[in-house]
Structure formats: structure tokens, C-alpha cells
Amino acid sequence: MDMSPREYQDYVKKLQKKSPLLKDMALAFAIGGAICVIGQLILNGWLMLLPHGVASGHRRKVSLHGSICFRGISSIVFYRFI
After folding, report:
1. Would the CA dihedral through 45, 50, 56, 62 be positive or negative?
2. Of 36, 70, 73, 78, whose CB is crowded by the most CB atoms within 10 A?
3. Contact between residue 67 and residue 40 where contact means Cβ atoms under 8 Å apart
């Protein structure tokens, strides 16, 4: 079977699966939002451990702890799916 490059390109386009762009974008938005919500819950959990009226310098440390926890959890979860 002898095809010109143009014929081959048309043949490949015909066989290609159409990408559901809107569905993919909505799914990415939902997953990204879920990740942010989980991260915020972790951060709020760490902030609840601080007594009320603590200086904002401690909030920076708590943000670091929350970030470390979230990255650890996400690396464990994603490692299981790879």
C-alpha cells in the first residue's frame, strides 16, 4: 500500500480519537480544586493547634508544616497509582 504523505495524514486523522476538551478541562478544574481544599484543610488543622492570639511569625512555621504534610501525603498517594 503506497500512500503520499498527505493521504497518510488524512488516514491518521480519520483514525485518531477525538479529545473531549471540555470534559478534560472540567475534570482538571475539579481535581485541582479538590487538591486545594485538602491542602487548606491540612493548613487549618495545623492552625487549630496554635493558641489564639499567636504572633504571625508562628503562622509561617505552621504553613511550612502543612506544606510538608501535604507533599508527603500527595507523594504517597501518587506513588501508589504510578
Report:
1. negative
2. 70
3. no
